[in-house]
Design goal:
single chain, 301 residues, alpha/beta, Rossmann fold, eight-stranded mixed sheet, disordered N terminus
Length: 301
């Protein structure tokens, strides 16, 4: 006879998977800044870096995997456990690569990325059950209560790696920016998930794009799109708002700021690079819209 969960039983983590087909949409910035925001609100958070460009790992303090340190690719291959690929997220405060050159980010872990993830499609394609690898890892290796929120930085692919991520049932965030090519990519992403649902429905695949996040959009002081700063961006957002299926999924817009690019050079997320930046208000609004509550206080940072 099945038993009911107790009132205090830990819940499975809430998972957000940020995906985009074309580069330059601010996908990794979305992952990093939302993860830092959620951690700052008192949640235990993990970022999983599936993108072979590994920009998320770089910004969070790891240009290359430390010698002997397992990565997400080692987990995919079954060589190491998920926990062995976890490192504490950090940001740079000094020169060099010693631990003293970095400061840890409270409540935030990183499942380390690697350029080897470029071979993930081939590896998974050789395994008849490859699409289930991540679901099996989370089911078998993720302790209850380890993290309350996970953010997945997906690679720019529409293949089996994306479908394996979608198999775990995340809330998919389709990321777009200030060009119309991202609107085309958003439709391609939806089509891919629809095909996955038809092919893998017997495995419980029902994932779809649940949220749309526009980043690097020129906004005026009132938060409206500044057409003089980019007519194409205005047209792209109008295309989303004019689609009855997409409009309800559109999250608060994150404005264009040069400092986002600086976070990559400095290895410092925007919160620690420029704590008064206006875009942080946009990021907080996105977190609110996603229903990520403040657990630690009513203080807004």
């Amino acid at each position: 006879m099945p038993t009911s969960k107790t009132a205090n039983a830990p819940e499975a983590p809430r998972i957000f998977a940020c995906s985009v087909i074309a580069g330059g949409a601010g996908k990794t910035q979305d992952v990093i800044n939302l993860a830092v925001e959620a951690a700052g609100r008192g949640h235990s958070v993990a970022v999983a870096d599936f993108d072979p460009q590994r920009t998320a790992s770089h910004i969070l303090g790891y240009q290359d995997p430390p010698e002997g340190q397992p990565t997400i690719f080692d987990v995919l291959q079954g060589k190491h456990s998920l926990e062995e690929a976890v490192v504490p997220a950090r940001y740079r405060i000094g020169e060099g690569e010693d631990d003293s050159a970095f400061r840890l980010i409270p409540n935030l872990d990183l499942i380390l990325g690697t350029p080897e993830m470029a071979d993930a499609e081939v590896n998974l394609g050789l395994d008849p059950a490859g699409v289930l690898w991540l679901q099996n890892v989370l089911d078998e290796q993720l302790p209850e209560g380890r993290w309350s929120i996970m953010f997945f930085d997906c690679g720019p692919t529409l293949g089996i790696l994306l479908l394996s991520i979608a198999m775990v049932g995340p809330e998919v965030i389709g990321c777009v920016a200030d060009e119309f090519k991202y609107i085309i990519g958003l439709q391609d992403l939806e089509d891919t998930l629809d095909k996955g649902a038809r092919k893998f429905r017997r495995f419980g695949f029902r994932t779809e794009v649940q949220h749309i996040l526009a980043t690097n959009i020129p906004l005026d002081a009132q938060g409206n799109i500044r057409r003089s700063g980019g007519a194409v961006a205005d047209d792209a957002i109008k295309a989303i708002r004019g689609n009855p299926d997409w409009h309800p999924k559109l999250l608060p817009i994150i404005r264009r700021k040069q400092r986002f690019k600086d976070t990559i050079v400095t290895q410092r997320p925007l919160r620690f690079l420029d704590p008064r930046n206006e875009a942080l208000q946009d990021i907080a609004a996105v977190a609110d819209a996603l229903g990520i509550p403040r657990l630690n206080s009513t203080r807004k940072r």
